[in-house]
User: What shape does this take?
Amino acid sequence: MNDLQKLEMLLAPDDPTPAAVAQSRRRLQERTAGKPARGLTARPVRGLRAAWLAGGTGAIAAAAVAVAVFSAAPAPPVVQSGPQVLLAAATVAERSPDSTGTYWHVTITETGLGAAVTDYWVKPDGHWWFRGVKTGGKAMPMPGSQPFSLVGVHLTYAQLRALPTDPAALKAWIAEAETHSAARTSGGPFTAAEQDRATFESLVSLVSTLPAPPAVRAAAFRAISEYPGVGTLGAVPGGQGLTIPPDGLRLVVDPATGRVNATSVYVTADGAQYLIVPPGTARVDAGWTDIPPQ
Assistant: This one.
């Protein structure tokens, strides 16, 4: 039963008795003949009562429309926590198609201080092209084979697709690989805190700049959601703004598409960590294409 049917049932009077029906029929016949009904004095009905009696059906219809309008009002927006946004993105990412193409194309658009746009294209076999300020805005083929990179960890396309799909196992795999890599800072090997940050940034790369398969992307989102203190900035251009302590790293995640659309830190094509100076961010556009670099 819909709202209009409910309203009609509530407003409908009880069925009249046979005596009441006969009396009403007699009064109607007398009014048609121009005579006042027995026991009643003919007088105009004024004001709101006249409007109601004369247009009862219209009033009922108006009330029904009002009920329908109020019933269709949108529900207030639900405020999601940072982990909820990431988990929602994980669900969408996991269900997305496992697409492929000739080139994996990444565009990084930086804002704020030092704003710039860079592009690179990588084929599954490692051949790659780069376009940026240093190439005069032209896509240039680069020498050698370019692997797909986490922080300090270089992977073939096959290795990238074979990464663990369990969040804890994925995080542990990355941490172990970075421990045995040549990754280091100018001050020497990673400290424990730097190691943890490198692992986090590698997880971010899996959901932003790397062609990880759907199950691996979902695992990376879930692993990020488990970092303590993940906060939300609410709706921002491109999705939901998130902050991750202790350095206040920022992500813009669209839970409807399961993509990271902007970040304050990313891993470059050669596996280096790149931090955007606040309040700047980098918009990330990445996907498969069959259009050659240009």
